[in-house]
Every structure is written in structure tokens, then in C-alpha cells.
Amino acid sequence: MRRLATIVAAVVGAGAVASAAAPVASGAVRQYWVAAVPAPTWNMAPNERDAMAGTMLSPSQTVFPTVVFRRYTPHWGHPIRNVPSGSSNQDLIPGPLLRARAGDRLYVHFKNLDTLYKRPHSMHFHGVHYKPSSDGAYLPGVSGRDAEVMPGQSWTYKLTAGHDSVGVWPYHDHSPSMEDSIAGGMYGMLSILGRGQKRPDREFEVVFAPMGDYQTIDGRAFVGNTPVFTSIVGQTIQWDVMAMGSEHHTFHVHGHRWVDRDGRDVDTQTVGPAETFAIRWREEDPGTWLYHCHVESHMMAGMIGTYHVTRR
Amino acid sequence: MRRLATIVAAVVGAGAVASAAAPVASGAVRQYWVAAVPAPTWNMAPNERDAMAGTMLSPSQTVFPTVVFRRYTPHWGHPIRNVPSGSSNQDLIPGPLLRARAGDRLYVHFKNLDTLYKRPHSMHFHGVHYKPSSDGAYLPGVSGRDAEVMPGQSWTYKLTAGHDSVGVWPYHDHSPSMEDSIAGGMYGMLSILGRGQKRPDREFEVVFAPMGDYQTIDGRAFVGNTPVFTSIVGQTIQWDVMAMGSEHHTFHVHGHRWVDRDGRDVDTQTVGPAETFAIRWREEDPGTWLYHCHVESHMMAGMIGTYHVTRR
Amino acid sequence: MRRLATIVAAVVGAGAVASAAAPVASGAVRQYWVAAVPAPTWNMAPNERDAMAGTMLSPSQTVFPTVVFRRYTPHWGHPIRNVPSGSSNQDLIPGPLLRARAGDRLYVHFKNLDTLYKRPHSMHFHGVHYKPSSDGAYLPGVSGRDAEVMPGQSWTYKLTAGHDSVGVWPYHDHSPSMEDSIAGGMYGMLSILGRGQKRPDREFEVVFAPMGDYQTIDGRAFVGNTPVFTSIVGQTIQWDVMAMGSEHHTFHVHGHRWVDRDGRDVDTQTVGPAETFAIRWREEDPGTWLYHCHVESHMMAGMIGTYHVTRR
User: Fold this and answer.
1) Of B257, B262, B294, the CB nearest to C261
2) pLDDT tens, C249-300?
3) Residues of B in contact with C146 (CB under 8 A)
4) Rg (CA), chain A
5) Half-sphere exposure (CA, 13 Å, Cβ side) for A264?
6) Please, what are the domains in chain A?
7) Which residues from chain B sit within 8 angstroms of residue A290, using beta carbons?
């Protein structure tokens, strides 16, 4: 029996390994390698259009150099896509979706490869358990190297997913460069399931955040640039919703409703900075549907996208 | 038995008729006729005063031409008041209160009579089930006539109230003129009861929305202009609360508390754009009470009114 | 048995007395004496630094004259600290923490000693039961002396804590000077326990409110000026969180999570103007942790502090 548990713990997906020191009986050890890397020509609106308003944009308005979180193979082998199977997201913004289950330990190896701005960076995680040396938040006279990883340096954040960690949670830069780094897209999500909880067929990450003059979803603005999420009737889909920045938003999906965790049927839900929620439903409604922030000025500034449901 | 069900389905209030095609056993078919009509001299503050501050206003600040939703008798006979029995609201803004019960089908016949601005308009409904052709939301290259009903034209939106539709929900223009139309008051509410749920004695609609330089409740600003809601000790009253626009609000009623649906006792509750909640209590406290948005700058800009409770 | 109840009711802490008229069987009578008094040199940042940004401030930016709520001994004997045992807060802003239990009656004796601005003032309480004459909210032509207590005058607010009053609630000036008074710090909290509910070992008051150009916690801005909350591993701690003003906030504590009352595990929670929540946990994590508003612009403008947990 013990042998089986060890085997189960050893095979929890790419980047996860069993550790002798880990509490194997209660969960796996998952290792992630994440670097801060330049994205020198990030484009918020690759199609250069606000399709809803029928107006054109230009690269001078929509392209800028930034630094983002990028996933690597173990031991910094080579960069890989941030997007895991079934997530339906684009690459780079948000950072890698870090998956775990309650009871798991996570080692997140972080390396600062910011050759663009040469700023210190860090990772601060919500929702999980850790000691102060894995907090990653700058506090003059108190915090240590975890909160100011200098260019070329690394830090390993040691986290535990408790039973109170089930759900989705933000991570983001909390170093002295935090304000600029978050404005440039240095954020991502943890997605933590219960021990026996089933994974959804499709998982969609929606991060509402301002970027320059626009209001973006996953660093992109306006229909046709923001992620196009897709599913098939009969699939279980999950939306991971989060906000970063300084504003409150209301997440709305056309033609659907969900039960929020306090039992209310809703189709519009407030999310403030660093708040998150995960919602699920079994898809039954084919069509092309809008999802957007229902704060009107945000929607008009780009915070809107499409969701395509096809028949099996 | 079947005959009885047919009869019950046939008499669900003004504008509702039984349809041969309707699933009579599971609910009624309710038909509503709603037009977009000019309101050429809408006045946000008919008494021309900010009574709390003791300052005077002038019609040049408070009167403007707009387009609103207006209820009609069946088959466009003639316009009638938007306000159903027991609602205690003023007329015109918000649009007609569309009532239904879980299991009902709704046919909302919409006609664009906007002779003022001659804009396209539409109705987009939250909370209910429908096919994409009843979504009413403009999406270039995808949406159809439901999302751009031109002046003089009509569209019928076909909706179903599911068991997950119980509560109050917004509807609003989602056509290409959406931004201007919502700023002018083109919104209203669905109020959906459970199959056997008792209707309250009094139902009050409170829509928080900006309008020009003011912060309005139901298109009106400042005490004496906003709705004066009334009830009698012993009555069951329901507040239908909603926000439209780009800001978050906090709804507060003096001298009362309520249990929100997650079991908390509160007397102040956040509502963001397109969010809604319905709260009920049995009235026990005679007096003249303030209700208002507790966002201070909103309250000072007009988002406040009075609620009068008298003894039997 | 009845005798015992009378004795229990008579000894509920400083300022509480038994009243012949009180429903002794169901609770105690608690009396508080609170005055509006000048604080001529309130300093939002006594250390004159934004430690996170590494910048200096000057008293010309951070010091200003204001009027605050100040607790007195019975019958206006002499001023005492606003901070009760175990609260870990600084003095003066917020006003006195008014504690009670469900079933108690509260007499809050208020005196206006505003010799600085010579404005009318009042106290308006959330969460408790009262008659209109204890509402304390100015409404021209309707409200009475409770809503405009002039300098030198007094008013006694008569409140009852019901079973729907358990939790924490705001009180604040709601007189004609409300806007200026709240901007200057005239607010505080009621903390009401259930009949048999255990008091926490430590109780921390966190009031998010703008003040001049800064975003303050309890009238103070930036780490080192805002309250330093402390606890010992094993203690039960309670955070009383509230917002005043015109903005929504998200309360976040590093390295901890809590169950909100609808059963969700969170570590970041929205609080809008006049909303409140009380959260508790048994402390297990030694370290120096940040607590802050996660609205980035608010955090950068001072809305951040530290929480120290030591081992027993």
C-alpha cells in the first residue's frame, strides 16, 4: 500500500517529482520552474482593431516591451508554453498555470532573467501555506532575498497546499518593482483541486487588469485579440477569474448562469484586485457568446471576448 | 386536471396568454410588449433642489432628452405604465418590471420607436435561458437582427425562466448604441419567483446609475425626486437592487437589517454593474428612513431617497 | 436564578450599569460616553516616511487639524483611551470600540465638544435596532436634534443589539457636516458578540478610508505609521474590517487564509463604503506579515501595515 502511494505521488504530471522528505501519504511534491523573461514586443491588440466600435488602432498604441513569467522545463532546460493541457488560453500572460491538489507541496524555482529593465523581481503566492522566507514580499529592514531576486539570481519558494487552499489564487511580483511589473503583466494563477476532485474538461483563465490606456483580459484588448475560449456541449468547463491592479470588475458570460459558492444563482460577479473565483458548469448551450467585464467603461476599453460552444 | 393547468396558465396577469406550443404543465407563457420611445424632457430633479445640501438646481442642469423602455398593451394597442401593482415605483425609468415564475416561457416583443435619435436598439436579458438569436448583443460578423433592431422594426425575444433564474436580473440595450442608451436610462429588471413562492406585498426597484453629472436612483437625483417608497407595518416588502454603468455601489437602508442569501446579517451591500439582489423583510419599524448608496460621493451627487413606514 | 441574572447584567465592564427598565433576563444595559473633540495636530505619518518607496514626507503634507470621537468616563468625568483591552489599536481614530452582546441595550451619550470648527455633529449606528429619534441622520424637515447636535449640546442614542446584530458595524457622523467630518476621521465600530460567544484574545480594527492625498488605515498612512498588530501563536485573533469614504477596497493578509461566512476559503476580500466583516483564526504562523488593501494605488498611497506573530 505504501509502495502504491509512492508511485502515485511520483507521477503527478510534468515537472513533478517525489521527494524523500515529502509527506507522501498526504500528497505529492510538485516542482515548477518559472523565470522572469523579456517580452520585447507584447501586443495588446494584434489585429489592431476595436471591432465593437469599428475603429482602427496602431502598433504605436498597442505594442510595448515588458517582462513576463515564463515556464521552463526542469532545471532550466528550455522555455515551454505557460499553457497546460485543456486550458484553452494563449501563451505568456498570465504566467504559467500552477496546478496542485490539497495536501501537495510545491517547490517553485524562480529565476530572474530580466535583461530588459534589469529590475529585481519576486513571486508572492496567495492561498497556500509557507514560511516568511517564501513570502516574496518586499518590506524594508525585514524581508530577505525571496523578495528581491536580482537579475541573474534564483530563489525557490516552498509552498504547501492545505485543505483551505482549494480553488484558484493569484501569484504576482511583490518586489520593489511590483508596481511596474504588475502593470506589465507579471501575474498568474494557482489552480488547486481537492484530493479526489475531478479536473474539468476545459479550464479558462480570465485575468482582468489595466494595461496602458486599455483594459485587458490576459494582456489583450478587444474582441478578436482577447482569448477565444472553446468547448463542446457536454463538457465540464471551469472559468478561473481574477483581477489585478486598482479597480473592481464584474465578470459576465452571456446565456449562462452559475451557482456561486454561497448558493446564489448569478451571471455577473464582482472581482476586486487579487480576488479570485472558479466557476464550473456542464455546457449545454451551443453558440458564440460574449464574456466581458460589465463595468461599461472597461468593456468599451477592451475587456471583452468570445466563447464558442459547438455541438459534439 | 389537464384542463385546470391550462386555465391557470391562461391567467397570469396583464399581457400573458396561453400558447398551444407552451409546456403548460411546467409553467405559463407570458407575453410582454416593450418599445423604445422618446422621453424628450426627462427631469432628473423635478423639484430643482439638493435638499440635503440646501442648494438649488436649474432645469438646464437636470432636464435632457432621452429614449426609454415603455410598456404597451398586447399587439401595440397603447402605451401603459411600466409600474405593476405593488411596485411603488415611479414611471418610465427603469423600464417595465417583467415578472415571471420558474418554468415560465417569456415572449418579449420589442419595437424600436426611437424617433428622437433614430438609433438601433435591442434588449439583452440576464438570468434567463435563450438561444443566441435572443441574446440581443451586438457582435460584428456574428450577431443578427436581434442585436440591431432599427427604428420602425421589431424583434421578439424568446426566453425561459429556469429554476436557476429565480431572483431579480437586469435587462438593457446591448446594440451598437448601448453606451449612449444605457447612459440615458435604457434598462429595467426581470423579477422571477419560484413556482410556489409568495409575492411580496410591496416591491421596490432601486437602480443605481450615473446620469450626466449626477448619481441617480431610477433616473432621479436627490431626496424628494428619487422614489418615495412606502409600506405598512406587517407587510412583506422586497427591494430589487441593481447597478448599471461603470461604478460599484453599496446599498444601505437606515434602521433595518437583512439576511443576504449566504446567511450574513447586513445593512449595507455592494452591487457592481449588472449585479442584482433581492432582499425581503417583514416590516416592523414605523418612521421615515433614508435609503441610499453609501459611497459618499454618490450620496452627495443625488443617490439617496426616503422610505416611509406607517402603522396599520 | 433571577438574582444571578441581575448580577451578571450589572457587571459588563467599564461604563455599563444595570437599569431597572432593562430587559435583564435577555441582556445587559451598556452605557458609553463619547464626545466629538478637536485633534488639532493629527499626523497621518508620524515617521514622515513612505518606507516601501524609500521617500520622505514632511509635516506640511501629513499633519492637519481635525475632530474625532473620544471616549469619556461615565457622566463626562474625563477623557480615556478609545482602545479597549486586547484591541491592539492606536488611540483616537477610529473612535471608541463599542462592545456589546446580542440582547443588550446600549445608551450612547454623545456630547459635541467641537471647539475647532464649531460644526453640528451626530452619531449614526449600523446593525442595531432603534427608533427614528436615535437614527442620527440629517433629513431636512424630518430629522430632529439627534441629527444636529450643536456645539455644547448632548444627545443620548438608545440602541438594542438584536440577534441579527452579531458582528461588527460602523458608526459615523451623519449630521449636515458629515462629508467633512468623515473625511477627518469621525467614524468607529460596534463589535457585537452572540450571547455565549467567546471573545477573541486579540481584536484588531482596520478602517480603510482616504484622508487628504493619502489612503489610510485608522487615519495613518504607510508602514511604520499604521497600526502594528501583534499576537502570540495559539491565540485567537479577530480582524474587524470596515471602509469609509467613496471607494471599494480588498483586504489581504499575507501568509493566512480565512473562511468567510459563506464558507469560502479566501485571503483577499472586498469591502465597500460602510461594509464590514469580522474574521477570526487561531494563530499558527510566526513571522512579520504584511496586511494591506490590495487595490494597488491604495497600497502605494499608504494603505499597508505589519502584523507580528511571535512564539509563546
Assistant:
1) B262
2) 999 999 999 987 567 899 999 999 999 999 999 999 999 999 999 999 999 9
3) none
4) 19
5) 20
6) 29-310 (2.60.40.420)
7) 137, 139
